[in-house]
Amino acid sequence: MATPWPMQKRLQNELLHLQRDPPVGISVNPNSASSTLTLWSVNVVGAPGSLYAGEHFQLQFTFGKRYPFESPEVIFIGGNIPVHPHVYSNGHICLSILTEDWSPALSVQAVCLSIVSMLSSCTEKKRPPDNTFYVKTCSKSPKKTKWWYHDDKV
Amino acid sequence: MEENQIQSDALGGTDQEIEELTGMARDEAIIAQQERIQNEIKENNPLVSQTYPINVLCEEYLDDPVYKAKIDDLSMQYSHIRKTRGDGNCFFRAFGFAYLERLLTDKKELSRFKAAAEISKDQLVSLGFPSFTITDFHETFMEVIQQVEKQPVLDELVDTFRDQGISDYIVVYLRLLTSGQLQKEAEFYKNFIEGERTVKEFCRREVEPMARESDHIHIIALTSALGVGVRVVYLDRGDGGKVIPHDFPEGCSPQVILLYRPGHYDVLYPLKGS
């Protein structure tokens, strides 16, 4: 009944869907996805009218075998890491759906939309107050951080 | 703030050891401890157990007269219990198992339920759930119902529910149905949600993620989504010396009976002839 890699079937579906019918400001380069689909990069553009309007960002998704039961690891990569109170300068993102509020019904697309919306609601471009300390001491994977989600609205 | 070196020997340490750490080392230690506790639970408990006589519960409450008296009371009406793993999904897993077990011998209810389950995906899509994420869960859910139809064998059902790769799909789909019902009847359910949260936020945080524990509101929503009555028998430290049953919805003739102990649900089986 269950295939050995149900995660690949699911990711295949998601990739197809995102290529065919991408939401505004989000695009995936299918060549960027590794052959086993465990690593993707997705391009995101800041929404019009937001502080990040027209800026291009790149998100890297890493999927484990337990996806979609476990959340993907998602970080900003490349030359432009958004300056935002929930984004560390090493690309790590403090967003509850990436760890404890993750649900198997969420998707790459849902994560990208949440991140764009997180950027859109920002009123002042600044780094998290503990950026220096965090970046110096954090683990390579943001999933190893026990995040405190103080304020969803920023 | 002081800088900390990673103290790998402290990973998965005791509460006190964790207290003494800060920053990232502390985070990793907490996460490692949580994983270790989860692994211990996994090793010692199958997702659904065999059935045990009710008095097996006494072993968990030695020297506890309140629970002893209530377990005696429970055994007046119920003969057996089937335990589920305490992984935060126990309500959905216990409910799913007990209901499908009933369908093994109730063809009429099975065909009603199969038809309702078949169209449930489209109903979720119409509520805004993306088809491409819920398809896999719906497909597996339907495959399990078909298995019950074609091969109504209890041992097969137990194996299915012990296979995490299938069992968790069933749990997810039941969570989605619960979330769908809450959102469909949001006007009604919003009255039962504490704090400032909307029904949608509540679903996103307390219903759809795995391992979030179930409250009355989850039970009411799921039972009305499926049209399946549930009796929950409460075994706790409350006064009175008797276990207290509560039917969802009130006045139904329950098709599933669950035992609730604070934080956990198991399946109950009535005494034959009662």
UniProtKB/TrEMBL annotation, chain A:
Protein keywords: Transferase, Ubl conjugation pathway
Name the UniProt record assigns to this protein: N-terminal E2 ubiquitin-conjugating enzyme
Keyword Cytoplasm (UniProt): no
Pfam families referenced in this protein's UniProt entry, alphabetically: UQ_con
EC number(s) given by UniProt: 2.3.2.23, 2.3.2.25
Keyword Cell cycle attributed: no
SUPFAM superfamilies: UBC-like
An example Gene Ontology biological process: protein ubiquitination
UniProt xrefs under PANTHER family: UBIQUITIN-CONJUGATING ENZYME E2
CDD domains: UBCc_UBE2W (cd23808)
A GO term, aspect molecular function: ubiquitin conjugating enzyme activity
Root EC class: transferase
From TrEMBL, chain B:
Catalytic activity of the protein: Thiol-dependent hydrolysis of ester, thioester, amide, peptide and isopeptide bonds formed by the C-terminal Gly of ubiquitin (a 76-residue protein attached to proteins as an intracellular targeting signal)
GO molecular function, one term: ubiquitin binding
Lineage: superkingdom: Eukaryota
BP terms from Gene Ontology: protein K48-linked deubiquitination; proteolysis
Gene Ontology CC terms, in alphabetical order: nucleus
Keyword vocabulary terms for this entry: Hydrolase, Protease, Thiol protease, Ubl conjugation pathway
A Pfam match: Peptidase_C65
Residues the record marks as site: Interacts with free ubiquitin: I220, Y234, D236, Y260, Y265
Protein name as catalogued: Ubiquitin thioesterase
